[in-house]
Amino acid sequence: RRIGSTSPRVAGYDLPNHGRVTLIAAPADHPEVLKYSAWKHALANKLDKASQGPTIPLIAVACAVYNLEAQIEGMRELKNEGEFGGRRYNFGKLSAISDLSAALGSISKSVLGEGNTFIKIINKPRFEISKIPLLKQWAENLHIQTGSSKLPILRTFSAFAMLATTAITIWDARRAWQQGDLDTAFAYGVAASGGAAWTAYIFGMSINPVVLIAGAILFIAASVVAGWLVDSDIETLFKNGPFGQYHRETRVPDIVLGDGDRFRHLSEPGAAYQQLLGVLGKPVIKAERLADWWQSAPLDVRDSLKRIDQQRKPSSQEEKCVRPAAQRLEPDDWVVIVHSPLFSMFQPHLFQLYAREDLALLYYNGAFNAERVERREIPEPKLAAYPVGGATVMYILPKQFPVQRQTPIVRFDKGIIHRLKVFGQFWLAMDAERSKALVLPQPNPKMWKPYVSTYWNRPPLSARAGDAVYWQIETSEFEV
After folding, report:
1. The whole model's pTM is what?
2. Which helix (H) or strand (E) element contains residue 22?
3. Burial classification of residue 185, based on how many CB atoms lie within 10 Å of its CB (0-12 exposed, 13-18 middle, 19 or more buried)
4. Which of 430, 434, 421 is nearest to 464 (CA)?
5. Residue 324, phi-psi category: left (phi > 0), alpha (psi -120 to 50), beta (remainder)
């Protein structure tokens, strides 16, 4: 810009009036500005063409399906965090469904074609932004970006879906802060800022394609990093336990948000030590067929099982009422190995373990065929809590379904899967009255609840991992 005939002052000095002073600022027709503008428009056109093709919408659909599965299955334990955890779980599912719907709407143009009536309805500009006086700049940016100051239905829905995802990321940052995961909270905060930039571009508030690229990179990368930085159970105990840096410390954000007592139970050394034992001694449950396990079993254990098996009478069709504990062992029976470094101090007669066997068939001759599942509870083991070393016990469970054999040709017609679902609870009695006892598994320290007598009751067979407090639920699959 040029300053004319009057004598201007720069930094307190009078400039002579015999010439013009030029302030350094690139004009609109500057070569570098023109290069940047051309590059920006070229990048925007490439992004627009890529979004119109089937590749990016297809990737978006795959990511949305994965996100839906993660919100439904991976976040199931949030329901145990109380009212706020339940709200986060339900809101996450709704957001994931919205993301999947928007992704399917984006790919529908490639599938149905531009002339389809449905495609015209969802892509026609409908929501006028310029009528709102305070949003004139938004309308101008949207017109520059899309050629219209109106938002289509699909673009509006996609923007609100991304806005909901950003809100969930902020929610996760709040939860991480409450749990003492400050680095995770920071990563989620960065992801939320990237999600906000991404949302602004979808809405048309920002016309620079660099904002979209930077927002997408920040959101995706920071979300992945946040997943890596989430504190494990042992880290949570060390941070908030008797020797942790946050022991008996209630931070101001926790008080404001009403969660100042979240880790108050760790202020008692006994409870903290009990949870530490629960984390370090969490049982590991593995299952396989007796014939497969027998090949790698220790010789002394095999000899002991042979002696036990020989003492039992051979089963026959007439002896169907014989209890499983008196039946002979069969190659297709289930062997369940339970290991914990604390089992040497446990009393096996206080263990609870029961299981269910599922037989699932899926035929491949139809596009909409569903898996057919038959379920049978295993009422009693053939061998219960048999010690295999000082820290391992073994259960042998009777098979409920005969193992079906498939030829290579039949495998192309249907798939057969045997599933064994195991429920376990293990007690270490501390005194004769059992008034004080360590129960494995312990709940997550972030969602810890004191043990009450009702937790001794068996959960329903439909329960999933994390649904029942003080119960460990493991499901093993074996494809035929």
Report:
1. 0.64
2. strand 21-22
3. buried
4. 421
5. alpha
Q: Answer yes or no: are the C-beta atoms of 446 and 379 closer than 8 Å.
A: no
Contact 420, 434 (CB under 8 A): no
The answer to whether the CB of 398 falls within 8 A of the CB of 324 is yes
At 245, the pLDDT band (50, 70, 90 cuts) reads low
Span 167-214, pLDDT tens digits: 988 988 887 877 667 778 888 889 889 889 888 888 888 777 777 788
Quick one: residue 469, left, alpha or beta (phi over 0 = left, psi -120 to 50 = alpha)? beta
**Burial zone of 61 (CB within 10 Å; 0-12 exposed, 13-18 middle, 19+ buried):** middle
Task: Tell me how far apart the 2 most distant CA atoms of the chain are, in Å.
Answer: 122
Take residue 238 and report the two structure tokens written for it.
């060390």
- Cβ neighbors of 136 (< 8 A, separation 6 or more) are 130
Is the CA virtual torsion 68, 70, 76, 82 positive or negative?
negative
**Residue whose token pair is 């939320």:** 192
- Per the CB < 8 A criterion, the answer to whether 138 and 204 are in contact is yes
**Contact residues for 101 (Cβ-Cβ < 8 A; gap 6+):** 157, 161
Tell me the chain's radius of gyration from C-alpha atoms.
32
Output DSSP code: residue 371: -
Q: Which residues contact 81 (CB under 8 A, 6 or more apart)?
A: 88, 446, 447
